[in-house]
Design a protein that fits this description.
7 helices, NYN, Rossmann fold, RNA nuclease activity, NYN domain-containing protein, alpha/beta
Length: about 160
Amino acid sequence: MFESLLERVRSPSTGVGLVVDGPNVFREEFDVDLDELRDLGRSEGTLVVSRLYVNEHATPGLIQAAEARGFEVVVTSGDVDVRLAVDATALVTSERIGTLVVVSRDTDFKPVLERARVDGIETLAVAPGTYGRSDALQNAADRAITLDTSDETDG
C-alpha cells in the first residue's frame, strides 16, 4: 500500500470518477439534474468514469436520459449500494483517477471515501439536498457540496 501511495505522488492521475447512487438521489423530494451532475464532475477534471447506478425499478426515461448525457448506466437486480461501493473501490485502487465524486445521501459509502483518501485520492461528497445530506459522508470526504444550496464545506 505504501508503494502504491508513493507511485501516486510521483505521477498523480488527474482523472475524475463520478458515481451516482440513483435510488437515493433521483427521488421526488430532490430536484437533481443529470446535466448539473455531469458538469460538476467535469469541473473537477477530465471525467474518465461517469456512472449512474440504478435498480431494476428505474424508469426507462431516466436510463435513456442518463445515457444521452454520457453516463454509463449500471442496472442491478441486487443491492445498488453494494455494487456502487465495490465498483468505486475498484476504481480508487485502479490508479485511473485522482478524484472520486460520490453523489449520494447514503452513509454506506463512507468506507469508500475513507479508502480513497488513504490511497491519496481527492474526494468530494455530493448530497442531493439538505434533507438528504449525510454528515458522515461529508466528514469522510475532503470536500462536500449540497446541491440545493450549492453550499460547499471543508471535510
